[in-house]
Amino acid sequence: MPNIMGATTPTGPLKGLRVLDLTRVLAGPTCTQMLGDLGAEVIKIERPEAGDDTRGFAPPFWPETKESAYFLGVNRNKHSVTLDIARPEGQAIVHRLLEHCDILVENFKVGALAKYGLGWEQLKAKHPRLIYCSITGFGQTGPYAPRPGYDALIQAMGGVMSLTGEPNGSPQKVGVPVADLFAGLYGCIGILAAVNHRNNTGEGQHIDIGMLDTHVAWLANQGMNYLSTGENPPRLGNQHPNISPYQEFPTKDGYIILAVGNDPTFERFCKSFGCEHLLEDERFKTNAKRVANRDLVTQTLTPVMKSRATADWVQALEREKIGCGPINTLKDVFEDPHVKAREMVVTLPHASGQEIQVIANPVKLSATPPDYRVPPPVLGEHSDQVLTGLLGLGADEVKALREKGIV
After folding, report:
1. Domain 246-250+255-326 falls in which CATH fold?
2. Tell me, what's the pLDDT at 2?
3. How far is Cα 310 from Cα 269, in angstroms, rounded to an integer?
4. Residue 214 bridge partners (DSSP)
5. What pLDDT score does 6 carry?
6. What does the pLDDT read at residue 367?
7. Nearest residue to 81 via CA among 48, 104, 118
8. What is the pLDDT of residues 196-229, one digit of tens each?
9. Which of 35, 59, 101, 389 is most buried, by the most CB atoms less than 10 A from its CB?
10. Which residues have a Cβ under 8 Å from the Cβ of 250 and sit 6 or more positions away?
11. Read out DSSP for 29-75?
12. Which of 281, 31, 47 is nearest to 290 (CA)?
């Protein structure tokens, strides 16, 4: 397989795989960035002139560039090729690219790529080893399949908003687009499973990821709480539905999360911080009873927690091996010594001439760690490189395609 990376040869566990990326915004790009971080070569197809929608999701831009922070966050380790796939010449180039690719990832509306001859059913006979991943709002089947999918409406329809927020307040979505992110990560998991299957059988397959499906899948303990009781779990603010105390408390100078995961830990907390009398109170003796009396637990412990500053509590609770943590702003997060020690921010040179910082891949592999070899590309940065170096088009052919607005 020809290498289009030049001197930046992939080193990760997916080295040797090539991905044709027909995704934009967040769910699909999250999936393909993960594949790229793990060593796959990713060719990102973008609309001429406009590019991925998120190039326009700004401000903020990265300082002294025209690049949106949003786009930079999920598009490293990708080669940007501008291509109008709505035109026959663009479709022909996609078909040629697929001769060199193992995986296609797309997040168009159901049936949209079939209009261009690029649907799974149209490609599977010609490319029997192709792994084709579709990420949509509601999947390829079912009554909602034709609908567009957006993170907020998936959070609403998937139930998480009914669980999030203060008991007497309005339902709230999570502060980051978790519906998109989970769909992208589940898509990546499906692709890795399909790669293993292909290694064993030589057979490609279609992966159908619906954002609503993935959202329902991660309802986790709350979903099981409903299935086991038939009762809708209430909104509890920052409290845990099955453990108490496991929530935020005000301190002398801010807030802290106190996570008492079991009865021995609660006993240790009470003995360490002047609350031994609670151990004789039937309402506090077991986790089940504390959950049943959660308002009383909160009212009783609030003045205790307000007696010290957050940093003092963190030090004291950690000394007793009791789960706790400050409620950090993002400034606090990125200045945290542990986050720095785990190298969760990576600096990359960018085509703009600036250095940019991106959030690192959290997967720590001992032998084949994530590889940050290509910064998020400017629009069409690699069009000539891919079209000439991989497909063998001549400079005049590329020039003609560009003059027609196809590239």
Report:
1. formyl-coa transferase, domain 3 (3.30.1540)
2. 46
3. 16
4. none
5. 56
6. 95
7. 48
8. 999 999 999 999 999 999 999 999 999 999 999 9
9. 35
10. 302, 305, 306
11. HHHHHHHHHTT-EEEEEE-TTT-SGGGGS-SPBPTTSS-BHHHHHT-
12. 281
Token pair in block for residue 138: 């509601």
- What is the mean pLDDT of the segment spanning 47-65? 96
Q: Does the pLDDT value for residue 297 go beyond 80?
A: yes
Determine the 3-state secondary structure of 231 from DSSP.
coil
Q: What is the dihedral of CA 376, 378, 383, 385, to 10 degrees?
A: -60
Handedness of CA 158, 156, 193, 20 (dihedral sign): positive
Q: Which H/E stretch holds residue 338?
A: helix 337-341
Helix (H, G, I), strand (E, B) or coil at 371: coil
| DSSP secondary structure code for residue 330 in this structure | H
For residue 342, give the amino acid letter: R
Question: What pLDDT does residue 213 have?
Answer: 98
pLDDT band at 7; cut points 50, 70, 90: very low
Q: Please report where in the chains the tokens 């009873």 appear, as a residue.
A: 289
The two beta strands, 41-46 and 18-22, are parallel
**Given pLDDT bands bounded at 50, 70 and 90, which one contains residue 10?**
confident
pLDDT tens, 76-122? 999 999 999 999 999 999 999 999 999 999 999 999 999 999 999 99
pLDDT tens by residue, 330-358 = 999 999 999 999 999 999 999 999 999 99
Residue 4's pLDDT is: 59
The CATH homologous superfamily of the domain defined by 18-218+359-403: Crotonobetainyl-coa:carnitine coa-transferase; domain 1 (3.40.50.10540)
> Treating both helix axes as pointing N-terminal to C-terminal, what angle do 27-37 and 178-201 enclose, rounded to 10 degrees?
50
Q: Measuring CA to CA, which residue among 284, 328, 326 is closest to residue 308? A: 326
Q: What average pLDDT does this structure show over 292-308?
A: 97
Strand partners of residue 256: 249, 326
Structural domain boundaries in the chain = 18-218+359-403, 246-250+255-326
Contact in structure between 39 and 368 (CB atoms under 8 Å): yes
Q: How many residues does the chain have?
A: 407
Whether 391 contacts 97, CB under 8 Å:
yes
Active-site residues: which are they? 180
